[in-house]
Amino acid sequence: MEDEPRDAPGPLIDQLRAAMGRMEVALGEVLEGIVWTDTEGRVEWCNAAFERLLGRSRITILGGRFAELLPLEEVAGPAPATRRQPPPGTLVTASHVRTFRWSRPSGELFLEISSSRLDRSPGGPRTFYTIRDVTQRQTLIEELRHRALFDPVTGLANRLLFADRIEHAIARMRRHQLPIAVLFLDVDGFKEINDSLGHAAGDQSLRAIGERLGSVLRPSDTLARIAGDEFAILLEDLSGPDAAEDVARRIGNAFRRPVSVAGRPVAVTLSVGLDVALDASGSPEGLIGNADFAMYAAKRSGRGQWRRYMASDREAAHRRTTLISELRGATRRGELVVHYQPIVRLDTGQVESIEALVRWQHPARGLLMPSDFIGIAEQSGLIVQVGGWVLEVACRDLAKWQKAEPGLSVSVNLSPRQLQHRGVVAQVRRTLERSGIEPSRLILEVTESFLLTDEERALARLRRLKSLGIRIAFDDFGTGYSSLSHLQRMPVDIVKVDRQFVDAIDTAEGRRFLSSIVELGRSVGVSLVAEGIERLDQIPTLVDASVLSGQGYLLARPLPAAAIAPLLRGGLRLASVGRS
Amino acid sequence: MEVAELRLRTDVPVISADHRGYITWINDRFSEAYGWTEADLVGRPLPTIIPRRFHDAHHSGFARFLTTETPVILGQSLELVIVTKDGRELVAEHFIVGSLAGGRWEFAAMIDPVG
Questions:
Q1: What pLDDT is attached to residue A222?
Q2: Which residue from A250, A403, A450, B68 has the highest number of Cβ atoms inside 10 Å of its Cβ?
């Protein structure tokens, strides 16, 4: 035996040892921590990734109890804790995957741990763990959750959270009987502030206004920013119906002093409407709506005024109803037009698809943007008619352009109300047939908001739409509520990354966030489109992050249909922009 | 430090093993400290003096070293548990070395009881 050459296979024990050595090396290269414990939960073996996770060498880990080495607190992952059915033929008898929080002195980590038990093992049953660091994913979930409820500019509650707080306040009123009030506040002439100081200063002034408002309120009051320059306040446990008016007066006084924006004093006034609920019969939207009407009435009487809601304020809504009836005839009268914004391959400059965007050539008010009338179209249900018309026109135009550019696709927005509409699948099918375009060349863009009402039905309808062969894009990704969990379940092909993420890629945090989204997109197999590209230097960063499609004013503004054909012929010549 | 050097120490417990992990030699200090005699140990595998719960890690660590020849625990002081002849577990400072002799690895450890 002593004369065996060193390279000979040698006795069985040497062969086993060599095989074990190679396995040990291979398991040392695995990124997940791997651990097994004995019947008493003491670590018998672990790999190098687990040593790195604990920052300790194996020799000091061995014999320690797994539960004491890693004191964990279970958290809800994107998917609930799953109990996996062991595959047939496996030796493992029970298997779980759960997400945990591990609070270490040096910071918090989120770990996804799968545990499996092997009952038939010499020396008693053993438990095997694989441990994956999912901190980045979990942080993204937390951030999205926060974004879903808080306004990113001011850090205040957003409309969704505000409505939820009112809901709770109304429920509490049933027990405590103390009145609550909703104040609706609009910054007078905010557009001028924004225009004169610039966009960034506009955000700063919103923050300054938020802080000033906060200084007037009690800690128990809720302050929210619910739209552009609109704030709202919920006052609870009021001593009486007039207490809310005192707060409105205090707000007026608080803004006698200018706020400071970038070191400069800026005079700000607010128009305030308020509505008091004396019993629990109201609804959040009703209260916000009433306060909003009162605010409009206050604004008509001059800057810096406040007003308590009266039924007559609703007459101000008359204008809106006028607009609705005008919109009703607008398609018939040919006042609606479709403009198109190219979506471009960022590394080649090739136009991949074009997004159809509706405009209203109003006879008296000029060219109206979607933000001016889609809201009322959605509320009134006219969106079904308007949206159907846009779909029809967009498919017809695409069929024309495809003669020159067969690979081109068209993107059409599908609003929540349209998706709720029973006939939407048939409408899309008929439109495809009439236009003769290949179904895969039609992309329907939906936003997360459609999931807010009757999610299951909305998803089912989306799946039926997709079964026509069309593609689905998820618009404004990251701005809505719990996007991440939804993305994993949605029949979606494309995710359009909201402009706020594109704006933020200058910062390390922004790039990290973007790469999380890219990774997420890759893991669920969707392609990404960056929205709102406005600066040349954003393109190489996006391409580096593997976001290869984009749209934005820098690339091309929305254009009338007549301008698209020449553009397709000429191309965007972005190749030099992409990676120079 | 070479295995041969360590085996010259008479003031501390020393044990040596061959490239397959079989014990080849112990000194008198070792017998005094842990109760094992030469007859008990020579020709026996190293896990004889290692508590059961550390066997997996011992085997895989030993196998890794022989496959990679890259030491992880050699040449440093480590507090490890040793099993005495009467079955007690003692914490002892281990200083383990390995060296090549005639193309084969051999190992020796100085194992000093703690406290």
A1: 95
A2: A450
The Cα-based distances of A189 to A217, A258, A302 in angstroms read 24, 14, 11
pLDDT at residue number A470: 96
Across A132-136, A280-284, A466-470, the highest mean pLDDT is recorded for A466-470
Q: Measure the CA–CA gap between A496 and A498, rounded to whole angstroms.
A: 6
Task: Tell me whether B101 touches chain A (CB under 8 Å).
Answer: no
Percent of chain A whose predicted confidence (pLDDT) is above 90: 42
Q: Please tell me which of the candidates A13, A17, A62 has its beta carbon nearest to residue B54.
A: A62
pLDDT number for residue A187? 93
Cα separation of the two ends of chain B: 25
SS3 helix, strand, coil % of chain A, rounded to 5?
Answer: 45, 25, 30
Tens digits of residue pLDDT in B63-88: 999 888 888 888 888 899 999 999 99
Q: Which two tokens stand for residue A477?
A: 């990704």
Contact B64 A21 (CB under 8 A): yes
Judged by CB atoms closer than 8 Å, whether chains meet at B66 and A24 is answered as no
Cα(A575)–Cα(B90) distance, integer angstroms: 71
Query: With left for phi above 0 and alpha for psi between -120 and 50, is residue A370 left, alpha or beta?
Result: alpha
DSSP 8-state symbol, B22: B
- CB of A128 less than 8 A from some CB of B: no
pLDDT band at A271 (very low <50, low <70, confident <90, very high): very high
| Pairwise CB contact (< 8 Å): B57 & A58 | yes
Q: Taking residues A324-332, what's their average pLDDT? A: 87
Task: Please check whether residue A574 is in contact with residue A360, taking contact to mean a CB–CB distance below 8 angstroms.
Answer: no
pLDDT at B76: 85
pTM over 0.80: no
Chain A nearest CA to B28, separation (Å): 27
B77 Cβ neighbours under 8 A, 6+ residues apart: B93, B94, B95
Pairing relationship of beta strands B23-26 and A409-413 according to DSSP bridges: unpaired
| Percent with pLDDT over 70 in chain A | 89
Q: B67 contacts in A (CB within 8 Å)?
A: 17-18, 21-22, 24-25
Q: For residue A184, give the 3-state DSSP assignment.
A: strand
| ipTM summary value | 0.84
Interface check B73 vs A, CB under 8 A:
yes
Contacts of residues B92-99 at CB distance under 8 Å and 24 or more positions apart, as own/partner, are B97/B1, B97/B2, B97/B3, B97/B6, B98/B3, B98/B65, B98/B71, B98/B74, B99/B2, B99/B3, B99/B4
Crossing angle of helices A135-149 and A159-176, rounded to 10°: 70
Which of A15, A17, A27, A58 best tests the B interface by mutation, with the highest count of B CBs <10 A?
A17
Token digits of residue A204: 């700063």
Interface membership of B91 toward A (CB under 8 Å)? no
Angstrom CA distances, B49 to A216, A217, A481, B4, B61, stand at 74, 72, 60, 21, 16
Q: What's the CA angle centered on A300, arms A232 and A184, to 5 degrees?
A: 5
| A18 min Cα distance to partner chain B (Å) | 6
Is residue A35 within 8 Å of residue A43, measured between CB atoms? Answer: yes
> Which among B57, B62, B67 has CB closest to A45?
B57
- List the single residue in B with minimal CA-CA distance to A36: B56
